């Protein structure tokens, strides 16, 4: 009962969400230009170099992370 | 150094699938790729239990052991990541993984499945942290933003735990003591080859 | 459930393009969303765009100027728990969702729907512009054209057939302000035919609970369940319907090692976490509850002091309960006596105990009676009005509580003011319109079929048609529909077309309408039934997340949600559409008197202020927009269990989160709201209360006022009636009123100021003085075990209309045929015919329906969300393994489910499971878009079809309505199943 391929292609043919948001969200010429020029090399593969930069630690006990731990405990019992 | 872990508290998991859609939302994972799933045992019978599964970021990960192109690496946070630039889509890691974590964009034979995709513990990949390239290939990098995987952060019943293994053990131990009965944790020993002292 | 394990594979083949997105070198949506946000920040030029920039600035190491993501908070629309949604917005685009740690309700958590809610707004399957159907084809039209044509037609229909010929169906996804506005609009149009989803979810709860102790709402809160030592969940599956509530339920269970008992015909995901599961036959709730009470009374476990002080006529209940011996209970419900004795002992002795129920209790022909019995169980055991106790009723949508409160109901005006002269005059004063003008808007109803004629005034005071019967009111012979003419037009705002039972008759009714307007973010089932070729309009309404306004969660906490992004595509807010219609209909100026309107959009804050000015009866008077916004800003200050902020906080000091109603007096009075209703252990100024003295002071020589029970610090140390100016004068409290307050009371009262009450005094003086004397404005009465004004004053068991036990029908028949809500209710005749024709033999399986976690309500919205749709791709029926074996049905194959009316049938997949008992089948109610085996996808406007379609369970559901509210029977009918 899932839709079939036929209907899904509306994405490509109709006024897609992208075009819509371009009109709505981007608005400015700069935004449109940025979108148009997106393959600005960013998606091209960079050489994979598993050096220290990639494997270094990123975890930090920020307030955000502390909030996660706090809400996972029985917080009111400690009061 | 803190070691990142996942733990699903099966006494709390209600198979609500928030972890699954949070993952889709955070990384815009396309239809057909499931970095995280909820598995239910004894469905509809007494003893029914659910558990949320994704890559468990194993110590001495079997996927890495079998990969013919060595695309896997483990970070200092003990997160297992891989390079999609190196991956050849052979599917060996899928066969090696005890949790069914590796996903492929296409169904096909050896080498035609496309680049493997899996849970990154919300910590991106080999590209520059928080870059567009990283996001497009691996999704967001919450760890670099000072956050934890969104699946765990949004878990409806606080069943799915993530973060520093020490902290998780502490939280889980408190629950077990409070409940007065044993462990409902799945997959921990398989993944980490450790016992939890509780 | 059925196929999701395989769905990854199933989905891949047909979604190559999407699936490839993850690695493809094309710009996909996620890329676009993030980048469009960035670009406007001018960062694209730098070349080395750092995506962290769209995140809050705590991401370290970025040398680029971070474009600031704006954080906006709104409330998840998918159930009544009231989860805060934290949205990251960059340049007007919603780019990410973050956990809402600060909310005391969800504490960061979401369910599948909440965690996927961003897609609801950005969905490319939303209706993008107004459409109308011309000769069966959908055409795009402008807003101006749509509104003009619709209002012209409405006016013509009204001129010819009267105001009552148009039905105004509102939504539980409206904000409070939109709900109020919609009801007010209905009043100005001149009809009481204004309803919404509460009719089909908890109307029986509202009626049953309000008739027991005063207000029709959850007495405690989700958070307060953490205090319970015993909890019974009856006819509810919060693990799927209210997942985040389970955070509190399961935490409470662990903290207190609480007993968690689930009573349900189906072994639900919730039952999987219970200590005790009681399987009952669908529709035998009253025998089971009386069976529990039988043990309570037999063993003297009742709370005798509580009953003596605070309950009226419990002895009448004892007489009925005495009939329900363990043997009779087992014969009727299938539950063994010993098990219920265990449940009874836990509930009565391991206190505090709470009772949680949902639609398994309410959606029955005996819904109101079920609810009454549940309340009585709490009263008998003294489990009301304290922390950890109470009737924790989990409601359905975001704002179904608020929409009910604000009068989207055929029997009330906003805030439960009755359809009586006093109620109308109260609102006429608040609205600053002439009462006579309002009256002139209503129809005169001529005499018909032996019924007397109604004047305009009488018609204005007559309850409207219930939404469960709208199509009957179109199709039945005119003399059976007790209004000037039958229905000619349906105005449907935010309401599915597949949520009401008896779909084949709804389709017929749809075809006969002169006008159908669907105002919704999605086309809904109404659009896809191929029932109409002309005179049908679709208006794209934005989602609730694109609207400012307040929402009332199930626990009565009111939360202010801010517009996350501007309405997408050409969609508009409910506020604006109502305003534009009122303009064309010529009453915009009076409707919006005193309300700021900018660019055709009425201001939500001004609407709330008007609600505050008139909302005395329910304590909606103290929650000003300023206070509600301060609560959202200071969420982290509220306690997880008590929901209270520290007293010394400058902004929200001492308040309960969301100022749960009643929040007495004007906002300046700073009443903290009422976390737990009827709680005598607190001063009224601290949120204390008593049972409401709503039903008089005495009946048959027995007092209806509380005895030796009063809230803490009360000046009156016994029961007392509700307060009027007359009562004030007797007590000498009129001297405490200020000159201004007195003047207002005199002005309202005219010749009879003594009659001005706590609920009609617009000065708020009476409430203010009550608080100073420590008394509750609505009086201190007893809860009623006997509600003499209801059809069954003490609940009695009645077999469902389509009973699987015809042998029990003679002893426990449904109620006799009767006219209710302008319509005949012929349940008795239908039941008798079913027995006479041996329907239970031809259709031997009980069919029940319910909820899946991934979808909500009619499901159009959630089935259009690919993140959710991927998880539930097929409509299915749960069939017991034994029933499947008898029929040769294999798991996963297609089957036909046949219903006993209209030769209806539905083609669905079989899920063979022991989750349902032998002889029971269960189907989810979220599907539509297939009809009796036919795929209706082509009838949706192109591109606005949901991802997943399936048969609606209501194609095969049947007749049966609660006599008090017109609630439909969705939980018990009969069916036959065969392999397809």
Please, how many domains of chain B? 1
- Tally of individual helices of chain C: 37
Number of domains of chain C: 4
**Rg of chain B, please?**
17 Å
Strand content of chain C is: 5-15%
The end-to-end span of chain B amounts to: 22 Å
Write down the CATH topology of chain B.
Alpha-Beta Plaits
Tell me the strand percentage band of chain B: 5-15%
Average predicted confidence as pLDDT of chain B: 90
Shape of chain B: globular
Shape of chain C: globular
Give the uncertain stretches of chain B in residue-range form.
none
Unreliable residue runs of chain C? 1-66
The strand count of chain C comes to: 34
| Mean pLDDT, all residues of chain C | 93
**Percent helix range of chain C:** 25-40%
CATH architecture of chain B: 2-Layer Sandwich
Q: Which two protein chains have the largest interface (Cβ within 8 Å of the partner's Cβ), and how many residues from each?
A: B-C, 62 and 76 residues
CA radius of gyration of chain C is 27 Å
Briefly note the structural class of the backbone of chain B.
alpha+beta
- Structure class of chain C: alpha/beta
Protein name (chain C): Formate dehydrogenase
InterPro entries (chain C): Asp_de-COase-like_dom_sf, MoPterin_dinucl-bd_dom, Mopterin_OxRdtase, Mopterin_OxRdtase_4Fe-4S_dom, MopterinOxRdtase_cofactor_BS, TAT_signal
Keywords (chain C): 4Fe-4S, Iron, Iron-sulfur, Metal-binding, Molybdenum, Oxidoreductase, Signal
GO biological process, one term (chain C): anaerobic respiration
Walkthrough of the structure:
The complex is a heterotrimer of chains A (79), B (198) and C (980). With 79 residues, chain A is mainly α. Chain A is built from 6 helices and no strands. Chain A has helices at residues 5-8, 10-13, 17-26, 29-36, 52-55, 63-72. The relative contact order of chain A is 0.05. Chain B has 198 residues and is an alpha+beta fold. Chain B has 7 helices and 6 strands; from the N terminus they run βαββαββαααβαα. Chain B has helices at residues 18-27, 62-66, 92-96, 132-138, 150-153, 165-179, 188-192; strands spanning 4-8, 37-41, 49-53, 72-74, 80-82, 160-164. The longest helix of chain B has 15 residues, at 165-179. The two termini of chain B are 22 Å apart. Chain C has 980 residues and is an alpha/beta fold. Chain C has 37 helices and 34 strands. Chain C has a 7-stranded mixed sheet. A 6-stranded mixed β-barrel of chain C has the order 26-30-27-29-28-34. In chain C, α6 packs across α27, α11 (285-298) crosses α13 (314-322) and α11 runs antiparallel to α14. Chains in contact: A-B, A-C, B-C.
